[in-house]
Amino acid sequence: MITLSAQLRDRLAQPLKIGQFEVKSRVLQAPLSGVTDLVFRRLVRRFAPDSMMYTEMVNATGLHYVKELPKIMEVDDNERPISIQLFDCRPDFLAEAAQMAVEEGADTIDINMGCPVNKITKNGGGSSLLRQPEVAEAIVRAVVESVKVPVTVKTRIGWNDNEINILDFARRMEAAGAQMITVHGRTRAQGYNGPAKWEWIARVKEILSIPVIANGDIFSVEAAVNCLEFTGADGVMCSRGTMGYPFLVGEIDHFLKTGEKKPAPSPIARLQCAREHLWMLYEYKGDRGVRQARKHMTWYSKGFPNAAELRGKLSVIENVHQGMEYIDAAIAELMALGEANLTTDAEPMEPVLV
Ligand SMILES: Cc1cc2nc3c(=O)[nH]c(=O)nc-3n(C[C@H](O)[C@H](O)[C@H](O)COP(=O)(O)O)c2cc1C
């Protein structure tokens, strides 16, 4: 059983202040490329109405040349609080993109300085900015100058074990005008492997005045509480733990506010959520949405009898109706078994390799 210490509760009772902007939750939904579109965020928001959400990362160079809002940058009219995340290495393009993001409704602009993917780093974006701190500073300064909303940075602890420079880097980001920093406790070389090194996040928290958000390995309420206790961070950001489990941010937020742990959703409730997710993606993006839904559907299909078989079927669905049929049949099968005979705990969320 996990308990919320009075100390932690008091420490986190105030809203999270990102510059002038206040957020009534200390739990954030991470930006996840290919995952956190408007549909996914609607589901997360249902369980975590106060939490900050992030769009998928948007390429500022693309925006500069196309000048048209990509679908990944769309936010709902009343979607609050919301941050639009941008990536690039050109301060001028990022400043321009930030203005478009504010017009679209962004409450804050987040700059991606942590993406490890070659395609991004070889063009000077994402985590390669850890190796070019002067460029990163210039980016933050340019974006801060171009918009009135707070500008934040999400990064890693360094390029590899021999180049862990997060302390110097974080100081520079703060001095350049960043109003919050999220630290993913892994190096670029680690990708998503090995445990996140929360000790570095604790050290960043010690030296900065702006809020520090801890990221990496937050797969449960317990992990969130341990991380907050260990790092002293101002909040936690959930990432892979939300894939196929849009309940996580709300569960942690609820616990931090009340000290009560919500019962985990039953397998049937999770499949009903999957069904809705599939339908919403179809409505929003048509058949492309259904193809994108395949991976989501497989992530939901865990922790109940015959889940592996369902995963196999859902990973290749051809259209929305086929997907609905498979899910409905699985729900009927679980109902016939009776909720009482089912495990209600989700399987431990294992890191998903991408
Ligand atoms: C599929 C996937 C997509 C991601 N996309 C983004 C992104 O667009 N922007 C970003 O800053 N981080 C992105 N990340 C990194 C996560 O936000 C997070 O920093 C990382 O997964 C570590 O947290 P975790 O150990 O809890 O998963 C992505 C990670 C995954 C697995």
Automatic annotation (TrEMBL):
Keyword check for Manganese: no
Enzyme class: oxidoreductase
Keyword Flavoprotein set for record: yes
Xref: CDD domains: DUS_like_FMN (cd02801)
Known cofactor(s): FMN
Active site annotation, chain numbering: 115 (proton donor)
Alphabetical list of Gene3D superfamilies matching this protein: Aldolase class I (3.20.20.70), Putative flavin oxidoreducatase, domain 2 (1.10.1200.80)
Gene Ontology terms, MF aspect: flavin adenine dinucleotide binding; tRNA binding; tRNA dihydrouridine synthase activity
Superkingdom classification of source: Bacteria
Sorted UniProt keywords: Flavoprotein, FMN, NADP, Nucleotide-binding, Oxidoreductase, RNA-binding, tRNA processing, tRNA-binding
Domain (DUS-like FMN-binding) ranges: 29-329
Pfam families found in the cross-reference section: Dus
EC numbers, comma separated: 1.3.1.-
Catalytic function, reaction form: a 5,6-dihydrouridine in tRNA + NAD(+) = a uridine in tRNA + NADH + H(+); a 5,6-dihydrouridine in tRNA + NADP(+) = a uridine in tRNA + NADPH + H(+)
Binding positions for FMN per the UniProt entry: 85, 154, 184, 239-240
PANTHER family according to UniProt: TRNA-DIHYDROURIDINE(47) SYNTHASE [NAD(P)(+)]-LIKE
Role played: Catalyzes the synthesis of 5,6-dihydrouridine (D), a modified base found in the D-loop of most tRNAs, via the reduction of the C5-C6 double bond in target uridines.
Classification via NCBIfam families: nifR3_yhdG (TIGR00737)
Similarity annotation: Belongs to the dus family.
Protein name: tRNA-dihydrouridine synthase
Source organism phylogeny: Bacteria, Bacillati, Cyanobacteriota, Cyanophyceae, Oscillatoriophycideae
